[in-house]
Design a protein that fits this description.
The chain has 589 residues and is mainly α. The chain contains 27 helices and six strands. The longest helix has 21 residues. This is DUF1800 domain-containing protein.
């Protein structure tokens, strides 16, 4: 795995490394023990979790299943558009996926106009402008943090209104994967550039290109401390997360061991089977000198304070390195050490599997099918130098049999539940700044634990149901969904969401029976009728002491405590809608 080295040169290299890292007593490679039972395979986390209970849900129509998995939620309009795309489910899915995978061909100017009209002012600022106007300028805290806050609120606006739904879902995936905590005092002012120029610019492109963009980005340089990584004081934070979180995953971590004892990868013997602590140290050395233009006292070049990427050669460890089975010669051109390592990583078969497992987990199921992971990884790796590598891999996953037939194997996280609710309920309100309802929503979203891009650890928000199944998470999410149906619009034109208006337009007043209203709203929100027990409970709640099949509920909101079928009818209707939003059918996808 060290091409170009003679046996004598390899022997000298091994000896030097063993002396440098004191590897004489390093443990040898030991294969991980095979799981002997499903419980053992589930790992330590599952050992501490409650035993799962299978909940069988009615299977929605094909369009609903697809749109709930691949967008932020099906709506009557998006279902109709999907069903008009072909004469069969397979044809419609292929047409929809291909269209969504070319987001630049989809006119999304309405969202840009909505954001501009709502007072978003920093989204278009360059990195240099964000640095000069929000970092270096003597501004108050709210002005300093505005770029990041705008990105955070923009995420919900785009999730609800963008026609580029698959692109928005994929963007959120990469934000979790390459997580940078938005509310950090130093990253927030430049977060707009990270979102626009790094994540969005590469979300459907090439993973290797994205890796380098992330490594050079000001936000990541600050968040994982590589801006201060120098040969006189190496900082391994970025290098460790690059290998552990961004590429290989912890399952391919071999610990502190002799890198020359690591066996070859079964999928490709030109690569080691995993990475060691020595690989982390050597990778950190390769990225010394990768920093930012922050007016450091040692910088002497012109324009040294624009906040952009800067390679400071004086800080770079230019000595020889041995990383992932590859020897890197000393005294190489600027950036070449780091770039060669990124090439090595991006073409590694285990990296392909790690990335594809996460993609399948996001779009299909919490327990990814190994066959789909393997076939997607083959596409990912064979296209590792192609500019549309991620797009091709996603297409393979989304058109697979597993993606077409899986249902109810994912749980909507709080942000996703809010976005889906606003889409299903025909919201026309825009989440913005300096407006009471927006600030209320922002405050309440924090209690759910799922504010966009604000997970404090570098591993990003978890994407499995067990992480979001606690009483607090459910309780705060339900409370927020109920608040959406009840809160007033500060503009003074009624409630925030047009529940009454939609009901009046969809159901004639003479047909406002509990049965008819429950059916209307189940089909509106879910796209189908849920299991009979759920429908019966909703009908009984709305009917109170009236006959759900025949009694016509009046479109009034008067007090009538002695006759509950006439008591605050409009409030009860909104509460029934809220109950549907809290149902397993709505919160599953």
């Amino acid at each position: 795995m060290t091409p170009g080295l003679s046996q004598a040169e390899r022997t000298l290299l091994e000896r030097a490394h063993r002396q440098r890292y004191k590897l004489a007593r390093a443990p040898r490679f030991q294969p991980a023990p095979a799981a002997t039972s499903p419980r053992a395979a589930a790992g330590a986390v599952a050992e501490k979790s409650s035993r799962g209970r299978l909940l069988t849900l009615a299977k929605p129509p094909f369009a609903v299943r697809v749109l709930n998995k691949m967008s932020y939620g099906a709506t009557p309009a998006s279902i109709a558009e999907f069903n008009a795309l072909g004469s069969s489910d397979a044809a419609r899915l292929t047409a929809w996926v291909d269209r969504q995978l070319s987001p630049s061909a989809i006119d999304d100017s309405a969202v840009a106009t909505r954001l501009a009209n709502a007072g978003y002012t920093t989204l278009g600022k360059t990195l240099a402008q964000q640095w000069s106007e929000h970092v270096r300028a003597n501004v108050e805290w709210a002005v300093r943090m505005r770029p990041g806050w705008e990105v955070q609120r923009e995420a919900l606006v785009r999730a609800v209104y963008s026609k580029r739904q698959l692109f928005e879902v994929t963007t959120a995936f990469w934000h979790d994967h390459f997580n940078v905590m938005l509310s950090d005092y130093d990253t927030c002012p430049v977060y707009g550039s990270y979102d626009r120029d790094v994540i969005r610019a590469n979300a459907l492109g090439n993973f290797r290109t994205m890796l380098e963009a992330v490594a050079k980005s000001t936000a990541m340089q600050i968040y994982l401390d590589n801006k201060s990584n120098r040969r006189s004081g190496p900082n391994e934070n970025f290098a460790r997360e690059l290998l552990e979180l961004h590429t290989f995953g912890a399952e391919n971590y071999l610990g502190f061991m002799d890198p020359f004892e690591v066996p070859p990868c079964p999928e490709d013997r030109n690569y080691p089977i995993g990475y060691t602590d020595i690989d982390v140290y050597e990778t950190a050395a390769a990225f010394t000198g990768w920093t930012i233009n922050n007016n450091h006292w040692e910088f002497t070049h012109a324009r040294k304070d624009d906040g952009g990427f800067y390679y400071h050669a004086d800080w770079h460890d230019s000595g020889p390195k041995f990383v992932l089975g590859n020897f890197i010669y000393p005294e190489r051109p600027a950036l070449q050490d780091g770039r060669d390592i990124l090439d090595r990583i991006a073409s590694h078969p285990r990296v392909a599997k790690f990335i594809c497992r996460k993609l399948v987990r996001r779009f299909v199921a919490d327990d990814p099918s190994q066959s789909l992971v393997d076939s997607a990884a083959a596409v990912f790796r064979s296209n590792w130098q192609h500019p549309e590598q991620i797009k091709r891999t996603l297409r393979h996953i989304l058109l697979s049999d597993e993606a077409q037939h899986a249902w109810g194997r994912k749980t909507r996280r709080p942000f996703e539940a809010v976005a889906a609710s606003l889409r299903a309920l025909g919201c026309e309100w825009t989440y913005t700044f300096d407006e009471n309802r927006s600030n209320d929503l922002n405050w309440r979203m924090g209690f759910t634990g799922h504010q966009p891009y604000d997970w404090p650890a570098p591993n990003g928000y978890p994407d499995v149901a067990t992480a979001w199944s606690g009483a607090s998470s459910f309780g705060m999410t339900w409370k927020l969904l109920n608040w959406l149906t009840e809160t007033n619009n500060v503009a003074g034109d009624g409630k925030l969401l047009p529940i009454l208006q939609l009901t009046r337009a969809g159901v004639p007043a003479s047909q406002w029976t509990a049965n008819r209203l429950v059916e209307f709203w189940c089909r509106r929100i879910l796209g189908y009728m849920p299991k009979s027990q759920r429908v019966s409970a909703l009908r009984a709640f709305l009917a109170q002491n009236g006959d759900p099949a025949t009694y016509v509920i009046e479109d009034t909101n008067s007090w009538a405590q002695n006759d509950l079928k006439r008591h605050y009818n409009q409030e009860r209707l909104r509460s029934m809608v809220s109950l549907i939003l809290m149902s397993p059918e709505f919160l599953s996808r």
